[in-house]
Amino acid sequence: MQPVNHALLVIDVQNDFCPNGALAVAAGNEIVAPINRLMDDYQSVILTQDWHPKGHSSFASSHTADPFSAIEMPYGSQTLWPDHCIQGSDGADFHADLNTTRADMIVRKGYNPAVDSYSAFFENDQTTPTGLEGYLRTRGIDTLTLVGLATDFCVNFSAVDAAQLGFDVMVRTYFCRAIDIDGSLDAALTGMRAAGVKVV
To answer: Taking a C-beta distance cutoff of 8 angstroms, is the pair 54, 92 a contact?
Structure first.
């Protein structure tokens, strides 16, 4: 059992990121049972949940553009996604087999219609916090293990932000799956290591 200062952060294990979902990650469902078993090693488990309003600015359909193309937003480059994880939809629900009862906290992100939010800590403007850092600090948690979907986007951004905030961070890739757009997985792994994240 990990000590009380070490939490498991489970990123976006939701239906839309699993096979047959709107933004399916290949084999995304295969990590659910292993993550459930991993939870037994941690006294604190935190889940994140992508939670977009209809017509979110990160949706390709909001710009009459092709999914996976990019546009410039006021906060920088933004990949445009298929509509996914819309608030209250089945796609936004956690995978039915995920043990959500172990969650001490659920962080919902991406609910601001004008800004996407990959990271569990900041929206994509890199300045607007989700509140997770304060929650962890007040609980005395300074070490994080990250798992979930997708390795190269929300796991990556969350891990790098956590490391930059001074947390001791590990990403366990066996419990993650990636989208891997144009080499995004290799770039994410390199970037996480450069930020001081332990990638195992």
So the answer is: no
